[in-house]
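Hey,
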Amino acid sequence: MIGAIHVLLVITAANAAPVLLGLLLGQRPGTPVDAGRYWRDGRRVFGHAKSVRGLLVAVAAAGLTAAVLGLPLLAGLLAGALAMAGDLLSSFAKRRMALPPSSRFLGLDQTPEALLPLLALMPLASISAASAVTGAALFIILGPPVSWLLFRAGIRREPH
């Protein structure tokens, strides 16, 4: 389970980095990942809240966190990239459901960004299938209260 906890810490760093960067840079928007493009349903592909800058800082933070935890840098970069891919996947799905950017959808918001890196790093971080599923469940359960606490502390702009 230690391997799964390390990967969850790496994923958490990946999620926290864009938020912290936003605090440092203020409300200046970055280049959107979807380049402002719309899908065939007339809605943005991912929405304005997903920026290239945010993705890059998320992957970098994940790599650095992995290195600090004793995991290979490349494993952290992979975990960060997969967590952000999962985040984009959930944003894409929420746009197709006509949910506004930054809206909350318990389970859909957390599952892909936790499960993709956990499954990919199973052999490298000695994570069992049960630990990967348990880790993803913890991420789903703990994500909303942690986000709310960060909102109350003035770190996040939304409580979710």
